[in-house]
From TrEMBL:
Its cofactor is Zn(2+). One of its GO terms (molecular function) is metal ion binding. This is Peptidase M20. PANTHER family: ACETYLORNITHINE DEACETYLASE, BLL0789 PROTEIN. InterPro entries: ArgE/DapE_CS, Bact_exopeptidase_dim_dom, Pept_M20_glutamate_carboxypep, Peptidase_M20, Peptidase_M20_dimer, Peptidase_M20A.
Length: 407
């Protein structure tokens, strides 16, 4: 596709992108803030319908039946055969009141926008929609179908959206995730697996001064377990709580453990080691119960990701952009989607940084070129000859990240 036409069409979409970004950032939509999440979903559904998509929303709930908000699924049909899935999320990590306290602001001198969720992931979400609009405006419908999905619970591990993501991934030929590019412009070609492990220790209370021997000290067991767990690669005990009063032998304690690993074998080994250690009696009379929350397996890239990266590099070269990529320590829906075996590439939103913090930012100067890159990539991989694994030998060529993994 003509690079100049891509850039021009992306530039035409920029004013609407910025106006929509302001609208979405100024709605509180932290995970489990259902009213705000539904408002953001309704806005997105409206934007997508204006772009000519067939749109539906579906209610998402957690395993206890608690509402999490609505997911948006927007579909646009083309003239080809390949289905491309674009994946993003609606939720942020910020508490109620943040949007009012920190609405979208633009620093013209720096070329940056600031606000809660401005890059994670509202900027990426809107860039995906803008890329769809670019393609439709240019009549570039060589895809069979473009499917844009936006979920309300990514920041809490997509605890309710996993079945929907698995369903959509199973019918896709390629998956492009719209988390923003790293702050140096890198796309994301791999992500560590993550799990939270909650360990509750159950002991027996007793008077610490008169008859401590009648007790079973859960605090002591928690301390010993913490030391043991910290010896496992990729494991961090982030929460340790125990007891009620200093003169009572603690009858309960609680640990919350973060697990991260780049490879599936290491991820499974870490979880197995935690289970083994927690089940080992460290103090007589103290037992443990374990709960693994939202386990998200590693996405270690691979042949399909390498193929998508080469396609992105080719489109970038035509646009005058140097495409680089890196592995990262944070997980995202890309991890879950990659479990389908379909090729996945992430970090395809604009450049941004400061995620989850008070200074989260989006590089506004990157919006037009990154929207053009995404639109060009969609068009490139929509061509059957390029996506066919049997006929495309380059897809099976190994690749090396441009930058080393980050923590």
């Amino acid at each position: 596709m003509n690079a100049a036409a891509l850039r021009a069409a992306a530039a035409t979409r920029y004013p609407a992108f910025l106006a929509r970004l302001s609208e979405l950032v100024e709605i509180d939509s932290g995970s489990r803030q259902v009213d705000g999440l539904r408002k953001v979903a309704a806005r997105l559904a409206g934007y997508a319908a204006e772009a000519g998509a067939q749109v539906r929303t579906t209610a998402i709930s957690d395993e206890d039946g608690c509402a999490l908000g609505d997911a948006v699924i927007a579909r646009i049909s083309g003239s080809g055969t390949r289905r491309i899935l674009l994946a993003a999320h609606l939720d942020t990590v910020f508490p109620p009141g943040t949007a009012q306290a920190r609405p979208l602001t633009v620093d013209g001198a720096a070329g940056r926008a600031y606000g809660p969720g401005v890059c994670d992931d509202k900027g990426g979400l809107l860039a995906g929609l803008a890329a769809v609009e670019v393609l439709t405006s240019l009549g570039a419908g060589r895809f069979g179908e473009l499917v844009l999905v936006a979920t309300p619970d990514e920041e809490i591990g997509s605890v309710g959206s996993r079945p929907l993501l698995a369903e959509l991934a199973a019918t896709a030929d390629a998956i492009l995730c719209l988390e923003c590019a790293r702050d140096n412009g890198d796309l994301v070609s791999a992500r560590k697996g993550v799990a939270d492990v909650e360990i509750d220790l159950h002991g027996r209370a007793a008077h610490a001064g008169i008859e401590p021997e009648r007790g079973a000290n859960a605090a002591l067991a928690a301390a010993r377990l913490t030391v043991a767990l910290q010896s496992i690669d990729g494991v961090n005990v982030g929460v340790l709580q125990a007891g009620t009063r200093p003169n009572v032998v603690a009858d309960r304690a609680r640990l919350v453990v973060d697990v991260r690993a780049a490879e599936p074998a290491a991820y499974e080994a870490a979880l197995a080691d935690i289970t083994r250690l927690a089940g080992t009696p460290l103090v007589d009379g103290v037992s443990a119960t374990i709960r693994v929350v939202a386990p998200t397996p590693p996405w270690s890239g691979g042949e399909g990701t390498g193929w998508l990266l080469r396609a992105a590099e080719q489109v970038g070269a035509e646009l005058g952009l140097t495409v680089t990529h890196a592995a990262t320590g944070g997980c995202a829906d890309a991890n879950l989607l990659a479990a389908s075996g379909v090729p996945v590439l992430d970090g395809l939103g604009p450049v941004g940084g400061g995620d989850h913090g008070p200074d989260e930012w989006l590089d506004l100067q990157s919006v037009v070129p990154r929207v053009a890159l995404l639109a060009g990539l969609i068009d490139r991989i929509s061509q059957p000859a390029l996506i066919d694994a049997e006929n495309d030998a380059t897809r099976r060529t190994a690749y090396v990240p441009s930058h080393p993994p980050t923590q």
